[in-house]
Design goal:
This is RING-type E3 ubiquitin transferase. Keywords: Membrane, Metal-binding, Signal, Transferase, Transmembrane, Transmembrane helix, Ubl conjugation pathway, Zinc, Zinc-finger. It catalyses: S-ubiquitinyl-[E2 ubiquitin-conjugating enzyme]-L-cysteine + [acceptor protein]-L-lysine = [E2 ubiquitin-conjugating enzyme]-L-cysteine + N(6)-ubiquitinyl-[acceptor protein]-L-lysine. The chain has 242 residues and is an alpha+beta fold. Helices cover 35% and strands 23% of the residues. The chain contains three helices and ten strands. The protein has a seven-stranded mixed beta sheet with strand order 1-2-3-4-5-10-6, with no helix packed on it. α1 packs antiparallel against α3. It is elongated, with a radius of gyration of 30 Å. It binds 2-acetamido-2-deoxy-beta-D-glucopyranose (5 copies). The site of one 2-acetamido-2-deoxy-beta-D-glucopyranose (NAG) has 4 residues, from loops.
């Protein structure tokens, strides 16, 4: 009986860990479910363009054609917020190149236009060069687009970004929060229904497992009690006979 219960618990445990394992990259990655999907994994819903994630060395990554791969640090499904990290540790390199116009994403922040300048000489204080975009022979700055371009600089691009470079805001993941919107409301509703359905079926499985377990326990207890009363009756009989 004890062995049976042990095996049963093992089964429940395996089943549950299998369900949750399928929705993460590695052990510490963010949970992945609708509208996201791990590319190449068994399809739970029709994959939505832009929402495909990749597992690379236990890291969750997302590919942007305009930039390349970014690491997914976390996903908040209720606030529709995906927090990314640049593997090259250069948020301003991402801001300069990332073009979200053909993706379901936009920045989670209020944006402002800044011009990236590429200068052959350093510019005076308070301007500070973006270290990860600069080298000894050139210096890259983010400036207000209204500022006239100095003679030693080329204007690289004017882009709407969360903030200008500041040495005080040099956290590698700062600013790399995006939010998403879904394009096909009908398809999505069906998919949400399906996700709800899959949660429901998972809950039913877990619920019925617990139910069977409780019943097994009750059976065990009742057998013990019956055994004990039988022993008692036997003892009583022996006492009466003697
Ligand atoms: C990924 O995680 C698993 C389990 O934690 C570990 O066995 C494996 O070595 C990891 N792979 C890499 C490439 O880090
Ligand atoms: C982003 O891509 C779209 C479409 O390819 C293009 O029209 C737009 O100019 C690009 N934006 C920037 C800032 O490069
Ligand atoms: C940035 O500049 C472009 C072109 O002048 C303009 O269309 C856009 O609205 C501006 N974006 C912001 C956030 O100010
Ligand atoms: C700045 O210019 C240098 C060469 O002058 C070039 O190698 C570098 O890629 C440029 N950087 C940017 C961000 O445009
Ligand atoms: C989703 O489920 C709700 C109720 O559960 C239903 O009214 C709705 O029609 C469903 N949508 C689709 C697209 O199946």
């Amino acid at each position: 009986m004890g062995a049976f219960i042990f095996l049963f618990l093992l089964c429940v445990f395996c089943f549950q860990s299998k369900v949750t394992y399928a929705t993460r990259c590695g052990d510490a990655g963010p949970e992945i479910h609708y509208p996201y999907q791990i590319k190449g994994q068994q399809q739970q819903h029709k994959s939505l363009p832009g929402f495909e994630l990749l597992c690379k060395d236990n890291l969750t990554t997302i590919h942007f054609p305009s930039y390349g791969d970014l690491v997914v640090k976390s996903i908040s499904y209720d606030t529709k917020n995906i927090h990314l990290l640049d593997p090259k540790n250069c948020a301003h390199h991402v801001f300069l190149n990332l073009n979200l116009s053909l993706t379901p994403f936009h920045y989670f922040y209020v944006l402002k236009n800044y011009t990236y300048l590429n200068c052959s000489t350093t510019l005076p204080h308070p301007l500070v060069e973006v270290p990860c975009l600069s080298a000894s022979s050139y210096h890259v700055y983010t400036v207000d687009p209204a500022v006239p371009v100095p003679g030693s600089c080329d204007g690289v691009k004017t882009v709407a970004i969360p903030f200008a470079y500041s040495p005080y805001l040099s956290d590698k993941s700062l600013g790399l929060r995006l939010t998403w919107h879904l394009r096909e409301p009908l398809d999505n509703e069906a998919a949400v229904n399906r996700t709800r359905g899959s949660y429901k079926s998972r809950n039913i499985v877990i619920g019925s497992s617990i139910c069977v377990f409780v019943m097994a326990m009750l059976l065990l207890i009742s057998m013990k009690v019956r055994g004990a009363t039988r022993n008692l009756h036997q003892k009583e009989g022996q006492l009466l006979q003697s």
